[in-house]
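Lab meeting prep.
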Amino acid sequence: MGADLARARLVTLLGPGGAGKTRLSQESAEAHAGTGRPDGAWPDGVWLVELAPVDDPEDVAEAALAALGARETKLRGASVEEMRALTDRVGDDALDRLVEHCARRRLLLLLDNCEHVIGAAAVLAERLLTHCPGVQILATSREPLGVPGESLRPVEPLPDPVALRLLNDRGAAARPGFSVDEDPDAAVEICRRLDGLPLAIELAAARLRLLTPRQIADRLDDRFRLLTSGARTVLPRQQTLRAVVDWSWDLLDEPERAVLRRLSVFAGGCDLTAAEAVCADPSYDTADVLGSLVDKSLVVAAPGPDGSGMRYRLLETVAEYAAERLAGAGDDRAATERRHLVHYRELARTTEPRLRGHGQRAAAGLVATEYENLRTALRRAVAARAAEEVLCMVHSLVWYWHMHDLRAESRHWSEAAAALGPDPFAAPAVPAGPVYERIVDAPPPYGGELLTEGWRGIQMIRLASRDQADGSWDTPEVRTQVERMLDVYRPGLPQTCRTPAGLWVYAVMIAGDADLLRRVVDETVDVARELGYDWELASALQIRANILANRADWGGDAARDADQSLALFRALGDDWGCAEALSARAESLDKRGLYAAATRDFRAAIEHAERLGAKAQVTVLRVRMAGALAEAGRSEAAEEILTEITATVRMSGNDAMPAARMFLATILGRTGRIPEARVQIQTLREDFSFGAYAVFEVFLLATIAWLDNQEGEFEDALGVLRGGAPAARDPLALMVAPQLPAVYLLTASVSLASPGGPERPYDAARLVGAYRCHLPPGHVPVTTERAEAALAEKLARAALGDAAYEAAYAEGGGLTLEEATALI
């Protein structure tokens, strides 16, 4: 502020009502006057001209003369007698008399509250600046004076620490002993929801005589009724929050009022294009009116997060007031909300294709910037039961939700959409025919097979976004719907190559039909290639690579598929896809024991995901990389990553967490920290109900049994393995981890061969043989498996002797999986 006064003769403090402009102007003038400027500051005084009581613009100059001649309004400076002489000259023009007096003097004039007489204040300021070289002016207003040479200084909302200090001080004055520390969360909420406006905070503090901070915070949705206890000594328009905003509203013309009230339908602000689409009217230019509202401090303008243009928003207090005005404006509210819905439906629909390939980051950033508007539009569409609008928006946003692991959003909105339309998988379900268009290819209305396909997509989004941390995946309702999905779709349909129909693969996996899954992934690759769907082909190759990495018995080449997928995604410029393709290749390398190469690919994948800002994808990739690091002998680095993730990443719904805790438990167990490893397992069991991913439960039980063996609790280990063995042979578990039944046999062999256990070395040897026999082709044992196999063989050989061990081992190799499991 001091720098502004040092370099400019006219400085205008801009801000909304209640921002503290008057107080700041006086404090700044006093502080600056006392700094001993080289020119002697203002030897002829600092004078306050309060314009709020002035109703007629023609009286502005008279008000200035009166201020200069009244002792009680003089802040510091020359004699009152000298100034009062100004008003003794009858018949002269007030502005001329003011200029004549000030022409030879050096003074600072504080023009306070100029907004309602802005034109007259501007004329006065310009005359003084051009004819009185020793005069400086510090003005407060809700809009600029528009005078040449004017320096604008926006009065920003108080930052949190300052706002809290003001609430604390004023609250203590209202209720002795009050401190914001008694409820710091509520205090912060009050200050932020009141936009850091000093007047609003002071009004809230006055209410502390009656209410607690939490009660005030909870009542701020009705702030205009709550904040009505201002000081009686201030102007009436400053005694209540509503009066403050009423004062600004009354100064607006009709186009300004129309745009302001319509801006209240936005959430999180808007850009100029949105404002023009939603607030438009033939009677005015929206951009011009918006600029006027910015000048009047009723709309806040700031650069957007991507630097592409300005964004406009209302302070929460102004937004609530404007919403009240819109609600009372007849049909204007419904029409404005409809324009808002259409604009953001189209934004979502036309942005959706750009979320794949070049421009992906910019598109994702646009959706993130406008996300609150998109959610608001969706909410209004659901409330209005505008089924096809909801259908279009959910289809348009599902890929963004998937990329950013917003499963709760996907689940919520697909459930809301499903309640508005038919269930196309309800009996009798009609088989789907080929559909080449998607809902997002055109705006509503829809019809025919495309509409039916749209509702099928909603049901598949519901299926794919079910909470993986609950048991709802295995209910009769879900199983029935999965069966009907399998009846309706068949491999090779063009829509099953693309989102959301491509989510059909979830139904196939839940059904546990490995043969069907293989046909699905193979034909999806073939059809996408045949139709020239490059992005879909890259995605299908990546999915198949992931599956083949775990199913070497299927034939095929996971690394080759991953390489092809990566080449396509790179050509398309798709960061998300490159991350997934690199991850698939890393998985294939990891399964072949090439851990250093796998780690390099995981690092490269993480870089792509970080560029996109896909935090959930980054976490999953870091967990997988930690597993590769541990197998490569870099356990300390792996433990550091996993410890950070388990300490900082939200548990609920995060796919990475089960693997992170199990990897960490394994590292801890290998280094003898069994109690710490058990804490990880216990935390996982308490916080994560495995639901659809029962295979995690199978892994978990294997880890628990292994830890039991480490501590010599061999009978406990066998009990755990008996309980988990059936689940390890479940079709879904076998589809994802076909080595698990054999691993169970190996862990049991250690329990049976160890001293202090059941001491059944012959059965232990047979289980080692069965383990070797029933490992899937191409399986490369991890460090723990290799150590367990060596230990079991060593113990059994020591107990049996070489010949008996070899005989038992050979016998075990001839057992079926069921016969070997029975030995546990």
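Slide two material, second protein:
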Amino acid sequence: MDNYMLPCLNKKLFGIDCMGCGLQRALAFLAQGEFAQAFKMYPAIYPLVLLLAFWGINLFLKFRFDTYIKYGLLIITAMTMITSYFIKMHYLFN
């Protein structure tokens, strides 16, 4: 499966990870059932999967506060991505 993963253009050009680095490997770990390793690889994987699942379900079922739930999940996902990126960069450059 590693042979079919796309390389990160940001990492190839500039030598540093982008905010999405690790997402493909985390999805591969989820598919293999290695949930802890998926979280270690990309901590935003679980809020992202939850957000995408809610959006998919919301196409067919409408909820009372679905807009607020979507925005809340979107904010949680974005904050998790940003926080984990800065933590990774802090440890990389220190």
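Talking points for slide two:
Helices lie at 9-14, 23-32, 35-41, 45-58, 66-93.
Residues 1 and 51 are 25 Å apart (CA to CA).
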